[in-house]
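$ fold --in a.seq
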Amino acid sequence: MKVFVVDVAKCNGCYGCQLACKDEHVDNDWMPYAKPQPDTGHFWMKLIEKTHGQVPKVNLEYTPYSCMHCADPACVKKSDAFYQREDGLVILDPVKAEGKKELVEACPYGVVYWNEFLNIAQKCTGCAHLVDEGQLPHCVDLCATGALRFGEEEEFAGDIAKAEVMRPELGTRPRTYYLNLPKLFIAGEVWDQASDEIIEGAKLTLTNTSGVKMEAESDDFGDFWFRKLNPGTYTLKVEAAGYQTVVKNTIELQDSLNIGDIPMQK
């Protein structure tokens, strides 16, 4: 079975995959898998761009996002216009999709689009026409950083064991696997309030409500970062030699957070 493996850490936001999809499908008829994609409005492969945090502690992260080519696709259960090939690629039949705008709602991942000009629903085909010829999907082929890969499931067994899928609670068993998906962070700066100088090497301990602890140290700019966090409530303890310990209780984390300066007193 074919799978996609996406390493978000390797994506630099060049939008090459999104452009490659347009290059392959706009004005090109790849029947029986797809009629031409319109110039605008469709993103069979798109890059989700998200800004995490607040100035000056900010990360900009990119996540390639397309059809998940699920092993148990919800769309196939809703309409016979969708079908799954033996290699696992999920296809929306262009003929059966004609005039059926309701098919846009068949995918819980929101990757089915409506083509007003052709009066059909459309989606990513995994470039099935290229795969049939032993080639890679165009988005994968043109990915400059290796963030996108495609091939047999056995080929990527090691990566799949460490990977995540989008919205696993849906039970659709996506066959697009993600490494290094963006997580949340807590960041800030430690400083000496009296001397108005940063404090390097302060020990910071972050504890979640389950009692799991993470440690970090302030760097030579007084900055600290706790990365790869899940939403929740945290307690932060700051310790530095010669300074009074500072404790910040009930840090509510729903989005990445710059908690700002933490003043310490001797």
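$ fold --in b.seq
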Amino acid sequence: MADETNHNQAGEVAPSTVDKQAPTVAEANAPSTSEPVATDIPTANAPDPKAANPKTNPNAAKPTADGAEKPAAAKAAKKEKAPAVEDKPFAEFIQQEYIPALQKAIAEEGVQDLQLTFAKQKLPIAGLPSDEEYWQVIGNWQNGQRQFNVYFPDEDIQGKKGFSCNEGKRPSTLESFLIDERKTTLDLLVFGLVRRLNSQKWLGRN
């Protein structure tokens, strides 16, 4: 039986699979045209869609309002924090913040005829003569039968504070007010006074 002759012995060249496929692939993905056409042939320089997605990649570039790109890692400028009401000048704080808040808080405790004033005057303390005047918040109701005074000798809510109260013509006493607090806030000034008046049994059903 004669041996079969292969393509090399017969002087023939075996058809290349690449040669067969290349024209088809090239023609399908890169047709001859004078206009640019997008293809689905992957390239080494194409960006990874996930890497370019700012939602999944914090380092991806983000477009700015003017169309330019900036790194996502750049920190946005912090918004300036609004100043606290306690940072207002002393007189403004008392008149604009403390007195309205105090009026509301005491009214909620059942006192409807409260009169509040802010004045610089002498200490109304029996047996304690003084010619020096201090800024104070003065509150009275029941036709002046009940009165309290909150003193600010340093003209600073963070400084020394005092309290006194009197009912009718009985002499009042002077005591320290909120001396154990590191920082005095509007809420603390209101709460502290309401608590003190409650202990005096002047609010609510007292």
